[in-house]
Amino acid sequence: MMKKLPYAGVFFFLFLTQILFAQQKELNGTVTDEMGIPIPGVNVIVENTNRGTQTDFDGNFSLEVTNGEVLTFSYVGYSTQTYTVGAEDAINIQMVEDAAQLDEVLVVGFGTQSKRKVTDNIASISSEEINNVPIPSLQGALTGKAAGVQITQINGKVEGGVKMRIRGISSISSSQEPLYVIDGMPLINDDESVSEAPINPLISLNPNDIESIEILKDASSAAIYGARGTNGVVLITTKQGKSGRTKVSINSSTGWSTATNKLDWLNAEQYIELLSEANANSYGEEDTYYTEEGGGFDQIANGTDWRNLAVDTDWQDYALVEGSVQDHTVSVSGGSEKTQFFISGGYNRTEAIIRGNDLERYSLRSNLDHTISDKFSVGLNLGVSKTHISRIGTDNSFSTPLQAVAQAPISPAYLEGGVIPNNESTIYYNFLMQEYNGDWDSDIFRVLMNSYINYQIIPSLSFRSEFGYDNNGQTEEYFAGSLTESASTNGYADANSVQSDKYNLNNYFTYTKTFKEDYDLEVVAGMSFEESTRKRQFVSGTGFPSDDLQTVESASEITSGTSSRTKYNFLSYFGRATFSLFDKYLMKGSLRYDGSSRFGADNRYGFFPAASAGWIISEEDFLEDSNVISLLKLRGSWGETGNAGIGNFASLGLFGGRAYNQRSALKPVQLGNPDLKWERTTQVDIGLDFGLLSNRISGEIDYYVKKTNDLLLNEPIPGTSGFPSITRNVGSLKNSGFEFVLNTTNIDNDYLNWSTSFNLSTLKNEVTDLPGGDIVAGQNIVRVGETISSFYIVEYAGVDPENGDALFYRNTLNEDGSRDRSTTANYSEAERIIMGSPYPDLMIGLTNNLRFWDFDLSFTFQGEWGASLYNSGGKFQSGNMRYEDNQTVDQLDRWQNPGDITDVPQARLFSTNGQQDSSRYLEESDFIRLRNVAFGYTLPSNVSQKFHVDRLRVYLSAINLLTITDYSGWDPESSYDNLGNSNIQRGITFYSAPPARTITLGFNIDL
Length: 1007
Known about the structure:
The protein is mostly beta strands. The protein is about 5% helix and about 50% strand. Keywords: Cell outer membrane, Membrane, Receptor, Signal, TonB box, Transmembrane, Transmembrane beta strand, Transport.
């Protein structure tokens, strides 16, 4: 029987309900991250109820609540926040990233992997590190950031080639560059310069578009790329859109550049003194050729009053000038749950610190990802760029600005009225003639595309197909007018066009499954096909009716015309399996079966296996609850990689068309080697990853050994064969070293955050087998037991204090195997010995990041020790006035009287006295460099949002701000750009320009 509620009870219930409803209200709020940027999709839940909502694209939410209720805010990667409802009707919640929740994901070949479970050695650089300081090339952004990676720009030219060496040198004649892969597409990385001076093939890429860069250093990580992994792999991932409101970002900067260093040269008075003395020492005090009326000084001074020092030209100041840089990028990104997009446009203009050299680049990128259904997703990454370069001569040409330092300071650079003197009024060709009467322009048009379709067959199995395309079109036009070096032909012009195309197709399955919650398995298996083609046309002509007509079609005579085309293919099959047991025992194995059209039919395919394992010791019971050790992982890897960086038809005997007695004919041009096979590198790596005190201190320790066998070598053969060389598999070499990385969070509170990253690496390179014996090229040698390309020169012994003669150590072998350390003034009596290496044996990088309130400061130091540089131009620049070239001021310390103690021999004009190739011009190139520094200020979000700006940061940055070195030349990293394809000659400098020191002012805006 149901009882009726008493009237008093009914009144009480209605009264209580009225009170509760009176307390309920609508609460509005906004959820942002630490930078003040709204976060869409945050779960907002009333505790102990089923009421809740999510933030919209602008991070806003609205929810019916009652005073005293507790709200929880949760989002993946952020710490859960709580809020107790009070009197406010609107609130702002700031979410903080939860380091414990975040498990960094690394891009690996054909997929991604949790960093915690990685058993390989992979260095990762994020977009924050790349974009913090505006740098024109992506390689420059990596300098000093990764252990075991050496990155060097050849010289200070804006387009200058960049050498990137990962864990040493693994080849002699074959390619020494890593494989670059952008969004899954292997890049064309061939220098297409018409001259020996290289152009950086990646100069057309905009660093602001990059999200992350992973460097695969050991064989286990690189072997999935098989034939191209010997020199390491650089994986570049561009920025992608994210679901949420549309975000607009603007990065803009303007900077000013100067040379990192200038040398001290003789002024007019010093030059006259030293040249007069050198002439007297060679031809006697009575010889007055230079000082008499109409004599040598009158000619060099072009009739100006040199006796009263009317002209004192600093030619270095004409060559090295103030440069500038502008860099602007605008990007738009966003999307919905199904479609995400990223679009950016960039502009860079760089005026070099070398006169007449500049670069202008336009770039556009569009990345699109779309989910068609629960099964299908597609995407397209497209990048287009146009780069224009105003070029200057190679280091070994008088038209290049830096060789102007050889001119005499008493020679005027200009005459009255601004007319530039002709060749007869300066010792050498005046480079200013080329600047005003000639042009050398290069235009690079590049298209990069990679598309994909992904099909989720079942929850644990997916199929992905990728098609990539890389087009690199480059044209170069050169013109030298009738007033230049080409005066005798009344002008010269040439045009060079290169069209390179690469197509890449990847098809692979990915199977991911967790068994019984403790066993994780991932298997990747597929194939890859790559085809590369190259076409080149070249034509040149002389004799032009006017210097205003500068194309070859205006030439009166076509002097040369050539064209060529070539192609090569790769066909590969690959597989990789990773297995995790109890989330602490890790294993991985990979196989790659590579075929290349470059090798003989019997050796066309190579098999490249790799394996690695890891043990997360910190997950064991005896360490699981440790308050000190956050991570302790032991890992090891082994694998084989290959190298096919040789000519496209190196295994074949080739014939070419030639003219013979005005008739067409065939001529053998290459000796074939059908037994040619893959160069193979086997690498072993053992490493330890550690984290202490909740990972406030973390790092890596690695030791590796790389052994390369069956070296692809252009081996010289007897001239009686009719051929200079043949490509063979001969010899082996070894690289080994330690790597140490330490990351620390020094201070972390509401006011100050300070973190440090330090890396150190050692390198020992040794040639272990060379059946054909020593290979000598210039001042370098390849010899068993020594570092590849070691310096092989006569040892300089100083100056004989009695007569000022240059002395050399004989270094001939005694019967007991020792060297004869006696000295001689007869250069031919001295033997060459090995006296250093062009490669450093110790490298460090140190990066600090500080944030204090709204200010930020970051800087990176880089250092190298153990390498040497040979100044091949020293015999002219610092040759105690052997020639009429101007000299460095240290040549004033020459020997003059018996008993003088000095390293500079007596000055003797046109007479050799110490200018031969010797260790006199070999120096250690150790240095420490403040590679980059940036100081910024971010406007508080509550202020910037009043102007509808999510983030506004202004900054002042600098590149190459400080260099500490004992090296006496222009720069310890600059080297000769005219070595061509020689992989043996290394560590040579010859009028090589220093890099730029650039100071930049810029801002970042997020809307």
